[in-house]
């Protein structure tokens, strides 16, 4: 776990800007869950059939990190009260426990696509490990005391979408330093660069939030 500032000093912050990075479950577990793919019915050549099936398998594996059933949380980064932190641990249950332990229902969470991806992913993986978390989901299924900058940008228009990179460029506060889909491999091969990537994403989210008047 890398902590530029002591995590204990950020207990129950008023506002927490955060971001998560995910990766696929270990290959052995994924293979047991992988659907049985078939090639198009008009394929007759064994090589073409094998190639088509392999292509579908590769595409399924590439998307595995995006589902809380086939993926896991690899890292969580945040900023609160002017302090930044990253929680990175191979033990996902411990990682989730550490994150939830620093916030409460009073904490205002600010993220990007956090209502659609980050928070549901965190909750579903927490259910998987039977990890307790603050009561941040309201009776109608909405995330309470939480701001999703992607929704702020929509201004009520659900058809309007934008990426964090495009939003940051539009607001003139910077740009992303990489692609989240590469995080799992980057964490394995260059841990320091992975930490820097996560920290930069959180910083970018915070700057966007400031420009949008959220914080």
Describe what is shown at a glance.
The chain has 215 residues and is an alpha/beta fold. Helices cover 43% and strands 15% of the residues. A five-stranded mixed sheet has the order 3-2-1-4-5, with helices on both faces.
List keywords for this structure.
215 residues; alpha/beta; 15% strand; globular
Structure description:
The protein is of the alpha/beta class. The chain is built from eight helices and five strands, in the order E-H-H-E-E-H-E-H-E-H-H-H-H. The protein has helices at residues 27-33, 46-63, 92-101, 114-129, 149-154, 164-171, 183-189, 191-211; strands spanning 15-24, 71-80, 83-88, 108-111, 146-148. Strand 4 (108-111), helix 4 and strand 5 (146-148) form a beta-alpha-beta unit. Helix 6 packs across helix 8 (191-211) and helix 7 crosses helix 8. The longest helix is centred in the C-terminal third of the chain and has 21 residues, at 191-211. The protein is globular, with a radius of gyration of 19 Å. Mean pLDDT is 92; it is low at 1-5.
């Amino acid at each position: 776990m890398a902590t530029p500032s002591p995590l204990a000093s950020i207990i129950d912050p008023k506002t927490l800007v955060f971001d998560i990075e995910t990766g696929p479950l270990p290959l052995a577990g994924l293979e047991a869950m992988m659907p049985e793919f078939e090639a198009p019915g008009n394929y007759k050549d064994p090589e073409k059939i094998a190639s088509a099936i392999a292509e579908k398998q590769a595409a399924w594996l590439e998307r595995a990190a995006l589902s809380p059933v086939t993926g896991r949380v690899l890292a969580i980064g945040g900023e609160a009260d002017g302090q930044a932190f990253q929680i990175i641990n191979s033990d996902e249950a411990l990682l989730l426990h550490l994150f939830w332990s620093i916030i409460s229902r009073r904490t205002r969470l600010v993220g990007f696509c956090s209502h659609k991806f980050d928070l549901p992913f965190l909750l579903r993986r927490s259910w998987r490990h039977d990890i307790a978390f603050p009561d941040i989901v309201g009776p109608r299924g909405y995330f309470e005391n939480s701001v999703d900058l992607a929704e702020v940008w929509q201004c009520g228009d659900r058809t309007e979408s934008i990426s964090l990179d495009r939003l940051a460029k539009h607001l003139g506060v910077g740009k992303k330093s990489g692609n989240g889909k590469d995080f799992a491999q980057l964490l394995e091969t260059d841990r320091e660069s992975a930490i820097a990537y996560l920290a930069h994403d959180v910083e970018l989210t915070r700057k966007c939030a400031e420009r949008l008047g959220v914080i």
